[in-house]
Design goal:
The complex is a heterotrimer of chains A (118), B (89) and C (505). With 89 residues, chain B is of the alpha+beta class. In chain B, 25% of the residues lie in helices and 43% in strands. Chain B has one domain (3-86): Monooxygenase component MmoB/DmpM (Phenol Hydroxylase P2 Protein, Alpha-Beta Complex), CATH 3.90.56.10. Chain B has helices at residues 15-24, 49-56, 65-68; strands spanning 3-9, 29-33, 36-42, 44-48, 69-73, 75-78, 82-86. In chain B, helix 1 (15-24) packs across helix 2. Chain B is globular. In chain C, the strands form two sheets. Chain C has a two-stranded antiparallel sheet with strand order 1-2. Chain C has a two-stranded antiparallel sheet with strand order 3-4. In chain C, strand 1 (411-412) and strand 2 form a beta hairpin. Classes of the chains: A alpha+beta (118), B alpha+beta (89), C mainly alpha (505). Chains A and C meet through strand 1, strand 2 and strand 5 of A and helix 12, helix 14, strand 2, strand 4 and helix 16 of C.
């Protein structure tokens, strides 16, 4: 649908990738781990490897959860745009097909210290 | 059945108005909360100028209600003598 | 001898006719379409503007008289508050967080509503409508001014009040309310009336002003009760205007029904999201509570909103699309928000805290199906972290909803353990949402919402993620305005001054 307007109405997106000084946004969340109130917003260079994302900001951010020490990163199940997906830890975000504003989810079956059974 | 309501500030000016509303609306339920009074009634509530005037012993313009009115629920019908709140049955 | 004949007092209906209809005129040297160029493009058909009638039949002369009376009452209490150490008579300085949110996010909304009503009062051709909008425009600016004035007394003593105008423009959580009003003001006059006059005023402001202000009274805050109820006395008229407007549109032409229904769906959900913050103010920020958010929703949402939509069914209106999802969210939203506010409190110009045992017992009694199951375990863990000297701060910042601009703190309507992930692609760009409701709103008018200024992404665009620079930019004084209430300057000052006020040492 279009916006009701008296003349042609075209919006200019505010958060296109070229406005981020060479970086991009990535959203990361951990299913059933709602100690973290919302998915994390990260701003990273597209050349960052997936391993750097995981071992850097992500490991630091999930640390307050009692399950964090028990995460086996080789067994985490990943989703991208809500679809099952397998990252290559050694390759960059760009090479892994992680675009600007993509949402990545991680699942760790069996870890649910603070989560009620659904 | 739907509930109509009116809420007024709890103060000396509204005390006789609330009494008048109780006289004119036997089905009304008066809920007293901190600093306010909320009056609920099934489908319809009527506020009459004449009854208020009998309670306060002076002339009363129904629009004076605006000063102490907090909120209401229902369709409003107002003339010189009464203000009615109602939902379509 | 001349006899002075007493003039007969005009009846209400006659006076209303003289003071509205008789003030209008038909333009002669310009076409009506040129004088009122914005009244047709939204597609609403109006055949007879004279059918618009204010049920209160308030005219400007009476309006000034009663508003002056309200102002006199208001200032008598504000003066008494300032003269009698009103800032020490509140139950607890935690309560001030609710006032800080109010001042930063809601009072500017009153000012925005003022601008909107001044504009639509000019854009509508009907005289009755013009007069009603004029009154409401003046009311709204009065609300903004009296709120700022009343709360300025607290600014003399407590942190977090001093830069509400910068907070309004720049801080992340205020963009929620600001975008709501910007959305309404950039719509046409009829949609504006549905957005503010109907959805916000009629369906939702009762939840904002009534139980919360009654709560202010319960917490010893006379200043806020006074501006709250003084404002709310105008709201009764605004609600009536909003309801009148919707009935007018529906009665004028059957073609208006689908347009009006679409606006109701949109603006109910927009308003519900903005009011989410109020749920937290009620359940967590009032030291003494009158009722829970759930109980307030039962009265003003379920009972009164239900009655309203039942009444409008005669025109073919059904309850707004998001109604059922709203009901499912009621027992969760205040907890989800407060957990968020606590972990991001380094970036809020108000304090938050971990609820005490007593608070948590109250919450589990009021939310028996949700609090102990989902939320108490998180608070217990957060308390453990604080006791260990590693208080929980979430520096991850948050994904925001493209439509309502809130952090995506919400869960699936039927699974409170799963965060709600919704996304769409439009013209090659990805957009994220907190709910189906917000995604539908975007899908209907994507060109409007792609322009959203989202504060979290902007922090990286403009300040390279530098939180210190961001704090300076939003006038947030680190260590004073933000963080946990426990150990804050507000807490120290309140305890010390209250001690001085009740003893001679």
């Amino acid at each position: 649908m279009t916006v009701a307007a008296i003349k042609e109405y075209v919006g200019v997106p505010r958060d296109r990738v070229e406005n981020f000084n060479g970086k991009q946004l990535v959203y990361v969340s951990w299913d059933h781990h709602l100690l973290f109130a919302a998915p994390f917003l990260l701003c990273l260079a597209p050349q960052t490897s997936f391993r750097e994302l995981v071992e850097g900001p992500l490991t630091a951010l999930v640390q307050p959860d009692p399950d964090s020490a028990a995460i086996d990163w080789t067994k985490v199940e990943w989703l991208k745009s809500n679809q099952p997906w397998m990252p290559d830890f050694e390759r960059s975000l760009a090479d892994n097909g992680i675009g600007h504003k993509d949402q990545i989810r991680m699942r760790t079956p069996g870890l649910a210290s603070l989560s009620a059974a659904a | 059945m739907s509930t109509v309501f009116i809420a007024l500030q709890a103060n000396e000016e509204t005390r006789p108005i609330i009494e008048a509303i109780e006289i004119d609306n036997p089905l009304a339920v008066v809920n007293r909360q901190p600093a306010m009074v909320k009056i609920d009634a099934p489908n319809r509530l009527v506020i009459r100028k004449e009854t208020i005037e009998e309670q306060i012993g002076r002339e009363f313009d129904l629009q004076e209600l605006h000063i102490n009115l907090i909120t209401l629920g229902g369709n409003v019908t107002e003339d010189d003598d009464s203000l009615t709140l109602s939902w379509a049955e | 001898m001349d006899m002075k004949v007493a003039k007969k007092k005009l009846g209400l209906k006659e006076k209303y006719r003289l003071m509205t209809r008789d003030l209008g005129w038909e333009p002669t040297y310009r076409a009506k379409d040129e004088v009122f160029p914005y009244v047709n493009y939204e597609g609403i058909k109006v055949h007879d503007w004279d059918k618009w009638e204010d049920p209160f039949r308030l005219t400007m002369d009476s309006y000034w008289k009663y508003q002056a009376e309200k102002e006199r009452k208001f200032y008598a209490i504000i003066d008494a508050h300032a003269q009698n150490n009103g800032h020490l008579n509140i139950t607890d300085a935690r309560y001030l967080s609710a006032l800080k949110i109010f001042l930063q996010a809601i009072s500017p909304g009153e000012y925005a509503a003022h601008k909107g009503f001044a504009r639509v009062g000019r854009e509508f051709p009907g005289v009755g409508t013009q007069v009603a909008c004029q009154m409401q425009a003046i009311d709204e600016i009065r609300h903004a001014q009296t709120q700022i004035h009343a709360l300025s007394n607290y600014n003399k003593y407590y942190d977090g009040f001093h830069a509400f105008a910068d907070a309004r423009d720049r801080i992340w959580y205020t963009s929620v309310a600001r975008s709501f009003f910007d959305d309404a003001m950039s719509a046409g006059p009829f949609e504006f009336m549905i957005a503010i006059g109907f959805s916000f005023e009629y369906v939702l402001t009762n939840l904002l002003f009534v139980p919360f202000m009654s709560g202010a009274a319960y917490n010893g805050d006379m200043a806020t009760v006074t501006f709250g109820f003084s404002a709310q006395s105008d709201e009764a008229r605004h609600m009536t205007l909003g309801l009148e407007c919707i009935k007018f549109m529906l009665e004028q032409d059957p073609d208006n029904l689908p347009i009006v229904q679409g606006w109701l769906d949109k603006w109910f959900w927009r308003g519900f999201r903005v009011l989410g913050l109020v749920s937290t103010m009620m359940d967590y920020m009032l030291p003494k509570r009158v009722m829970s958010w759930r109980e307030a929703w039962e009265i003003y949402g379920v009972e009164n909103g239900g009655a309203l939509f039942k009444d409008l069914a005669r025109y073919g209106i059904r309850p707004p699309k998001g109604w059922d999802d709203a009901e499912k969210a009621i027992d969760h939203m205040s907890h989800q928000f407060m957990l968020g506010l606590y972990q991001w409190s380094f970036g809020t110009s108000f304090h938050s805290w971990i609820p005490s045992d007593e608070d948590m017992d109250w919450l589990s009694a009021k939310y028996p199906t949700t609090f102990d199951k989902y939320y108490r375990p998180r608070w217990d863990h957060i308390r453990k972290l604080a006791a260990a000297g590693t208080p929980f701060k979430n520096f991850g910042l948050a994904k925001l909803c493209q439509t309502c601009q809130l952090p995506v703190v919400f869960t699936e309507p039927d699974d409170a353990t799963m965060s709600c992930h919704r996304e769409t692609e439009y013209k090659g760009e990805k957009y994220h949402f907190c709910s189906d409701g917000c995604q539908h709103i975007f899908d209907n008018e994507p060109e409007k919402y792609v322009q959203a200024w989202l504060p979290m992404p902007s922090l990286f665009q403009e300040l390279d993620g530098d939180i210190g620079a961001w704090m300076n930019w939003v006038s947030l004084r680190d260590g004073e305005d933000n963080g946990d209430y426990s150990g804050s300057r507000d807490q120290r000052n309140f305890d010390q001054w209250r001690g001085m006020a009740t003893s001679n040492t």
